[in-house]
Amino acid sequence: SVADHYQNLSPEVKAIFLIDERTQKMESRLNKLENNMTIDYGQQLSIQNEGKSRALHFLGGKESAAYKDKSIRQKAFSAIWKDVKEYFNVDSYKNIRATDLDKAVEFIQGWSMSGRLWREIELVNSQLQFNE
Question: Would you call 68 helix, strand, or coil by DSSP?
Fold first, then answer.
């Protein structure tokens, strides 16, 4: 045991060793907590805003025909969140680990939608301009 290990040492040195051991255990627990902590509410909002603006970019903005088409708008938003969840292996973007926040923002900013959906959006947006 720990006590047997330190029995020939002075009480002061024993105390130092015990404090060191406790500190190491606490640091280990703290590291586990930090590594598993999820993003807080403010960080969730910033991730949500990044995702919305990225999807909006592909839709062609709020004035576009694709954005105004509820079905296509939903497909675009679903697509980005599906990819975010798959990449970070979470059931909701709200469960992204705090340590992955920067990576999540980077992922969303660099995200691109599938060719099929992008083509569908282009088609809807070009049809509206054609009809005006």
Answer: helix
